[in-house]
Amino acid sequence: MQEFSSSSKISLEAISDGFDEGGRAEAESSEAYLARFRLVGIETLSELVEKHKTYSAVNCIIYDPFLSWGLDVAKKFGLVSAAFFTQSCAVDNIYYHVYKKELKLPLSDTEKFVNIPGLSVLESSDLPSFVYFHGSYPAAFEMILNQFQNLEKADWILINTFHKLEEEVIDCMASFYQ
Which of 3.40.50.740, 3.30.420.40, 3.40.50.2000, 3.30.1330.60 is the CATH number of 84-178? Predict the structure, then answer.
């Protein structure tokens, strides 16, 4: 783990992805990278929590749902967990409906418009590329869908948005996890 020095009261520490010398370029494939990152990430995040248990309390893990194993580490240590979605709520809502198989993929050639709860009717070409060009990046697509795996076990769900900006879709998504 690399520790970043800072003169502020906030310190940063990185966890390992298992490819500390060259990152993703060291891996044979995207699938191999993600599999190793999961194993090593769980291990090094657990070590980080253990390290801080002795001298400064860790109360919560805020994790990106793309790395859904962050929730597993939080629960392992009895910590509060907060999933932090960094994309717009509209995009998360589309991926959620794909995850729940309510939006069937691949889209047929005749599907010019898509109706997803909480959103205005969309042209199929307005969908995220991982949905519109289904099958283009299988490992990344699996990671996108897995962000909803066990999400109901998170104590908090945070989304990077403004309520007034995405009010209808936020209210729709909030109903999924109440």
Answer: 3.40.50.2000
